[in-house]
From TrEMBL:
Spans through the membrane: none
UniProt protein name: 4-phosphopantoate--beta-alanine ligase
One Pfam family it belongs to: PPS_PS
Self-association state and partner proteins as the record states: Homodimer.
Catalytic reaction equation(s): (R)-4-phosphopantoate + beta-alanine + ATP = (R)-4'-phosphopantothenate + AMP + diphosphate + H(+)
Lineage of origin: Archaea, Methanobacteriati, Methanobacteriota, Stenosarchaea group, Methanomicrobia
Family from the record: Belongs to the archaeal phosphopantothenate synthetase family.
Pathway: Cofactor biosynthesis; coenzyme A biosynthesis
Annotated ATP binding sites: 20, 42, 183-185, 189-190, 201-202
EC id: 6.3.2.36
One term of GO molecular function: ligase activity
Amino acid sequence: MPALSDVPPSHPRYASLMTREKVVEGVERGITGRNGLIAQGRGEAFDYLIGERTTAAAAEAERAAAAMLLLAERPVLSVNGNAAALVPGEMVSLAKRIGAPLEVNIFYRTEERVRRIADHLRSFGAEEVFGEEPDAAIPGLDHARAKATRGGIFDADVVFVPLEDGDRCEALVRMGKRVITVDLNPLSRTARTSTVTIVDNVVRALPNLISLVEEMAGWDGADLAGILEAYDNTAILRRSVEEVITHLARSFSPLDELSPP
């Protein structure tokens, strides 16, 4: 049987298989926790439900997220193990384009894994990575996720959280921060708590965000603010659920016509 890396790009599940391989490689390198494999599988299941594409609702949320990042005075990009495995270069690229630091924050924290993730980001050109020496705590959290860094997430006005993180999103919002998340489950606590929720796969959302930031970088602040004033996250989540229903209705066919996964 060929290795996953030998699967040809013509394979109908090529993109999904390569994404899985990146997460597995992250576990093997000590970057991603084993629980990240479960999170990846759950996300992939929700991705099926939206047709493995960036929906119109997700595209609108990504546009609002780009505007929010460009308007932020102290944006910070949070990185966990799965994000480090899946989109490290894209996270570094986005950080450079908006002048933001990266900060490593993981639920199943070990200092060794934090260091490995930070070094991994630096290998992609990251110039400022926080998280190895946290000196503050996010109020209302009793586990390692409370650890934060002054000058980083603790002092940020906008925090970009690329993957599900419900209790910390709630805590950050209580601190008065605006939170942007990428979460394929529109019903999750993360999705419902965040200021802007992008219901999309992180491997699509990050390139989209980078392109939008590049496009909108020269815009007038009033135009960017207008995008945010018109944005309604509850309506976006509702539309995201409707997208799932519509996709399932269009995709339904008798069982004998369904292709194997």
